[in-house]
Here is the input.
Amino acid sequence: MLYREAGQFKASYAADQAIFPIAQDRVLMAILLVVAAVVVPLTATQYLYTAILIPSLILALAAIGLNILTGYCGQVSLGTGGFMAVGAYTAYNLFIRVPELNLLLVLLAAGAMAALVGVIFGIPSLRIKGFYLAVATLAAQFFLDWVFARVPWLYNYSPSGSVGVPDLYVFGFPVITPTQRYLFILAIVALMALVAKNLVRSSVGRAWMAIRDMDIAAEIIGIRPLQTKLSAFAVSSFYAGVSGALWAFLHLKSWEPAAFDINRSFSLLFMIIIGGLGSILGSFIGAAFILLVPIFLNQVPPALGIPLSTATISHLEFMIFGALIIFFLIVEPHGLARLWQIGKEKLRLWPFPH
Amino acid sequence: MELQDLYFLIEVIIGGLMAGVLYSLVALGFVLIFKASGVFNFAQGAMVLFAALPVVRLIEWGVPVWAAIAAAAAIMIGLAFVIERTVLRPLVNQEGIILFMATLGVTFLLEGLAQQIWGSEVYRLDIGIPTDPLFLGEILVNGFDISVAVAAGLLVAALIAFFQTTKVGRALRAVADDHQAAQSVGIPLNHIWIIVWSIAGLVALIAGIVWGSKLGVQFAMTFVALKALPVLILGGFTSIPGAIVGGLIVGAGEKLSEVYLGPIIGGGLENWFAYMLAMVVLLFRPQGLFGEKIIERV
Amino acid sequence: MTRRLLATAGAAVVLAAAAVLPDPAWAQANEQFMPVLVYRTGPYAVNGIPFADGYSDYLNMLNERDGGINGVKLVIEECETGYATDRGVECYERLKGKGPTGAALFNPLSTGITYALMDRAPVDKIPVITMGYGRTEAADGSVVPWAFPILGTYWSAADIAMNYISKEVGGVAKLKGKRIALVYHDSPYGKEPIPVLRKLAQDYGFRFDELPVTHPGVEQKATWLQIRQNRPDYVLLWGWGVMNSTSIKEAAAVNFPRERMVGVWWSGAEPDVRPGGDQSKGYKALALHTTGSGATAHEDIRRFVYDRGKGKGKREEIGEVLYNRGMMNAVLATEAIRTAQERYGKKPLTGEQVRWGIENLNITEARIQDLGLVGMMRPVKLSCSDHEGGSRARVHQWDGQKWVILTDWIEANQKMLRPMVEAAAKKYGEEKKITARDCAKTS
Here is the structure.
């Protein structure tokens, strides 16, 4: 009823190629943005910001990055945490050594540096594939972890190896309170998600998907595997780098290399599996989901009168993640995003599904 | 002094080789499963914990050692059944990478389940492996390491014998060669999977007992899987001797790097050194040192 | 299709419920909210569990025996951090606003989490107690008003350990030419003592080796081979979790005498030595307090908590090193609340009020008697500028069955440490753009 595209004619190529070809989608997206940018800041509690909204937005950004590499280009990576660390430490070093630099430029540089490192570690992907590559990306993870723990210049000779940043300003505006941080992150993430969405619809994105579906076949139809794979690594790491810088600067504020360890890489991979491989929307849903499950387990059973011990809760969390991953891979490899799609299809026919 | 240094070098190499054998024990489980079902089973580390916990807890409750080990073996075989039913069968004919990610899920499931059932503290496991240092002339070796190396050697010999001489072993090799061909000559794939996952479970049990005696049975045991991965890459996913040789190279390589390179560029590098080594090898031999050549067709 | 719909519905419920539920719906009860950050699972659970048990049991004991603190009931909520900083931050954000007056204080029980909370605490006005761990700079309360490394920082620990070693070798002068190795957990926790040890090495003329062990520390053969090669006279151990027991076993494997290993107080508990069996015999570590469960407070915990079936752990684990550590932490927290109540009234207090209580904490010998902790701890007195309250520790040794105290209380050399702390705090203040308080003016 509400969601029907009848009567919406695409009269130009531009209209045909729009991100949201259906008017209702555009309206929905606009409403979502208004809610995120206006309604949330008016209503959200500090808890909602700092424990849910800010971390899930930042992690969604990293998940988009990983999704570009894994979901679109088919190269599984277990090193995203390491690339996030590159972003965080690049940003930190720029920040303390060139204090007058604008925060946006710092973030950009963080992404660029991560992209560079990503390309270097992406080179083996030309020869090794699949889980061989997955294990090879672990090399990046462990090596980068080690570098940031062992090269004193990178953590400014802090005796404990832990670094931190003071309150931040962008163009003189403070980014300190949760609301300010949230809006700043929202702006960046929204922009970068839009770019990602357009990238994967472009010829670059189609080349990535061709490589994913079968790289030899792609090569035969004239896609150059070198450029394509490395560009996926670069873009993916850029997103991870920016996200790492945001995670460090605006979420943790004080951090050590362990904040970007292998568990971070795993949880990002889980986000895109559960959220949806090859879906920008899925990255957001997956990030929110992974973040909310432990909170749910902590809050809901006691509220229902089933007190669980702390240990049981965290073991349950392990088991639920594990089971969900298997469940989604078997039942719905395209994750929660696909479920949303199916919901939309149903809505199209509703209430007369014939 | 120079002789001293030489002795020390030998000690480092021996120590490394012995550590490598321990990694190989875990890597063997990966290889077995990969050979027969083409699944890169990330859960092997979790299976080590899952197998060792019941052993140690049952012994604690007064069950004799052999019975506890038997019970754990039964649990691992049961686990193979469950995994085959709930994970492998529904995902049959999926891409390897999907199966890999599914085993990531299995990893988390097992880690949570094992700790929930058996507890998350550290449990001491002592089945009488000698641990005292021995001196061979000037050179110090660890009694524990030697026992483990002997055990690992026996295990590998037994596995090779099993694969080469028994009927089931032949069937396993046939499946590893070509799933479809094996199926068409009447080898039941599902049974083979259960068998091979059970064997991998038993290997995990042995690895669990060995690592458990070394570390105490606790959650941190699952991390040894991460140590086994470069071994696997180096040796190739499909080769049992490769797992052993890969383990030896990784073990010796990382100890040498830590001892001789560590003081120069900063310690703690053994964690990534093995991975880097493996990656460099991959660049030249994408199938690992002993792996079968990968042939791709469109 | 139904399965899919089920999944959608399930996911939606999870998302909605988790996002909406945290809204605290608290009656204006006479309750003080006590958040507890714990790790009962994961690689460090081995050490996290007894600590968490001790902490909760003591608070529960106060509730059962006295009805809380002066009639204000303590409400305890645990949150699992898994020793991960981001999880710790999430726990903090979730729990800080709970209860009628918000969280009284936090015990992060992880150096990494402490670092992250130190930035948040001043904003939210919630104090952070890091007993025997945390960031050394916080010992200077004029720069870091909200964090309290009571009873000892790692710098003090390093100094105490070296003090003990110098006594063992027969005086400070004899340290010259000796070789001391530090085997440490490669994290802020393990790196903290290094500056002091470097300085001591310079002052006393011993040679100092730094040997990092990567998380979680299951494989240390190379480290110990280096020790075998370098033959240090003593090894300091700064480990946590599985790393400790592995170190002791590897020491045995290279024949390094356990008597010449000295662990920090986080490397000297039962889970660290038990896996090694006989190999751990002779191993030494610093002790912040006594072990054993003979104090009156332990008796009360058994009587009021375990006999009523409300104990968190196992009865026989009462009195273990980390259990007592958790208890001590709870004692400091509750005594601080009691102190603050004297000033602000016997009602639930805000974090800011509790902070005053911690800063003016003064546990005297007589008070220790009243608390039923005789022999377990030393008197503590904090002030605006001194958030450590002096640092003393003893050395205890594992005899294969139990920990045996070897020495009297050894005091850290504050004359040397304090200027270092102040310099570090100054740098910290500059980095974080904090202006120091003038401690002469605060009441």
Notes: Chain A touches chain B through 48 residues (CB under 8 Å). The mean pLDDT of chain A is 89. The first strand of chain A starts at residue 163 and ends at 164. The two ends of chain A are 13 Å apart (CA to CA).
